[in-house]
Task: structure prediction
Amino acid sequence: MPMLVAVTGLVGATGLAAAPASAEQKCNFPGNSTVCFSIDRISNGNFAVHVGIDVHIGLEEAQEYIDDFGDPFVVWIRGDDDGKLVEFLFTVPLTKLGASAGFGLSGDFDAVVPGVRLDEDKGGRDEVRATVALIDTDTNSTRATYVSNRIDGNWP
Ligand SMILES: [Ca+2]
Ligand SMILES: [Ca+2]
Ligand SMILES: [Ca+2]
Result:
């Protein structure tokens, strides 16, 4: 029953399917990865910022990143001015990490911030992107940096 096997495999895997559904979510495919980025206003007026990444590497290599001491990803929300990454606004902490044969190395990152934290152009509209650095913590070196699609807003 090949269909059943395929479905079981998906359920057991960590991947972007775990990300919350969002109208604002934007996914792109920089390098060998899938990056999803969303910003949602929540009931208290703050904003829920979510970043998800799958780096499509082999299971063994992905597991090695997980087994190393420390987080293999560092996520910054950056201000975008005319296509250039300018401001470092805030980091988004890792909330879930996984390795799987289907997706490679997967991370989810979540933060709740007031709108003022996303206000990268004071008095004007704002454009933000998430950058995800893949870190080899054995050598403390950045192996790759993945940049998300842009989300536009008018914060705070
Ligand atoms: Ca800007
Ligand atoms: Ca602004
Ligand atoms: Ca700016």
